[in-house]
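Consortium newsletter contribution from the modelling node. Members have asked for a concrete example of what our holo predictions look like. Here is one, prepared for the manganese (II) ion complex that several groups have been discussing at recent meetings.
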Amino acid sequence: MNFLSVLAVSKTKKSTTKTVKKKVSKKTTKKTAAKKPVKKTTKKISKKSVSKKTIKPQRTKVICISHKEDCDGISSAAIIRQAFGGDAILVDYPGQMEALNQVVLDEKLKSLFICDLGLSKKTQDEFIDILTTLRKNKVSVTYIDHHDIDPDVVKALNKIKVNVIHDINECTAVLAYTAFKSKLNDHASFVAACAAITDYMETRPIGSKLLQIYDRQFALISATVMTYNIVGHQKEPDYLQYLVEELADSKFPHDIPNTYEFAQIQVEKLSQMIAKVKMGLKTMSNLGHMEILDAGASGAVNFVMGLSGKNVGVAYKERVDHGIYAVSVRGSKDCKVHLGKIVNLLATSLGGSGGGHDKACGAVIPKPKIKKFITELNKKIK
Ligand SMILES: [Mn+2]
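And here is the predicted structure:
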């Protein structure tokens, strides 16, 4: 706990220094601008003659909105931070749109990166709308992802000149590493390789090349320890930020204090989870499912699938604050349907959202619809 408060202090310090560096006048200008109703006219005039008194606040901020729940999201944020600086906003799927709606209001935002956050039928239109506003405000936007995406969304994003880096064949951190390699140091390839491992994508063309730079066992234990620290700190945003900063600063997971001790605690919890899943697991003809009460659904879902003996596992956890269930779905190697696509459509039809990969995906389902979601999914995956 202590070191966290130290972190918080050092962070504040950093940002204060930044603001001071950026000249005091900017702040004053911004305030005046907000009060004056003539803002727009002044803006137009000052555009050409960018002279001493620009009313428009200068856009200087770099922000990366990335997925907070796994190594790929955290690693992507670290890679963007190393390449471009700036701060990360780490979110889960339910928090994704909220974060976008926040940053769109930030008058200092200069460039935005969005990483490892797939879209669904439910969210894609709003996503395009927000990015359109950002582009109108001349914010540079880069969207890096590898989840299944509606081709029309890519078209729409290209049209508004969002830099779309999308490939379902590699994980997001590997895509980010490849795109911005020239701005990254050697260690970034390790961060990307760890992300590929946790996303089951270390056998893909680029992922495998990155992994072979390192000793396989060393990379595996590093990726695993990272993952356990990320999963176990979901409710501590400061710690997740700290991980991003340390990885961006070329630290190995074992160089970050207490990560291995923390991973030990997590594996103990997981072994208890095995016992709990054995007790609470329910099965239908085509899937196993279970409500999770005291851990994350994604940590349990592999056990639910494995122990059920079915080709699909579903674990769901209530998010009381949102009135929804966060649902994790996994398919075995023998699962022949694309779960991400099925879950996207089904979740949307029930007033939720969802999607992802063929054998690993997630959904947000309104609380009263969870039973229906499971019975319908069971029907659709024969
Ligand atoms: Mn990913």
